[in-house]
Specification:
The protein is an alpha/beta fold. It has two domains: 83 residues, Fe-S cluster assembly (FSCA) (GMP Synthetase, Chain A, domain 3, 2-Layer Sandwich), CATH 3.30.300; 67 residues, no CATH class. It is built from three helices and seven strands. α2 links the parallel β2 and β3. It is elongated and about 55 Å long. The two termini are 29 Å apart. Bound molecules: zinc ion.
């Protein structure tokens, strides 16, 4: 496989109108597990670029390997592209580098918190993530405890706040 020409990657570079149109479209494709987040919020859309074949190429990185949402995300993305007239667009799976919860955008983190899901720690917190307490998304208390490794989906762990006694899901770090 030859290396693709350098182009606009997620979050940077100059986008053509067609590329921006696809970004806007994908911003409306919800994550099947956490519908308040779009796949762009989740940070799994790695690039949208025009290839030498004049087709748009869209790179998507699966979140957690084995996450059942991966196939649903692919299908929803394809359907959105087709419905918007991007039938020629090429959907590509990008396996390297692997997705990390650091890629969730600031807007995505705010949406998670508003939805009552503790967002993953930001990259700045990465060094202390192993020991960092999980804050309650409702009252902000750090007096929380993990109830189970798996929450409503395999990608989330289930916690309970000991201050307001509300259960909540925490988006796991990988
Ligand atoms: Zn609380």
């Amino acid at each position: 496989m030859s290396a693709a020409a350098p182009s606009a990657e997620a979050g940077g570079g100059v986008r053509t109108a067609a590329e921006q149109g696809v970004w806007d479209l994908l911003s409306g494709v919800p994550d099947p597990e956490i519908p308040v987040l779009s796949i762009v919020d989740l940070g799994i859309v790695r690039y949208v670029r025009s290839g030498p074949d004049r087709r748009l190429h869209i790179g998507i990185t699966p979140t957690y390997s084995g996450c059942p949402a991966t196939e649903a995300i692919r299908a929803a993305t394809r359907a959105a592209l087709d419905a918007a007239g991007y039938r020629e667009a090429c959907l590509e799976e990008v396996l390297s580098p692997p997705w990390t919860s650091d890629w969730v955008t600031p807007a995505g983190r705010a949406k998670l918190a508003a939805f009552g899901i503790a967002p993953p720690p930001s990259a700045a917190d990465a060094g202390r993530r192993a020991s960092a307490p999980v804050g309650c998304p409702r009252c902000g208390s750090l007096a929380t405890e993990r109830i189970s490794e798996f929450g409503s989906t395999p990608c989330k762990a289930h916690y309970r706040c000991n201050s307001c006694h509300e259960p909540f899901d925490h988006f796991k770090c990988i």
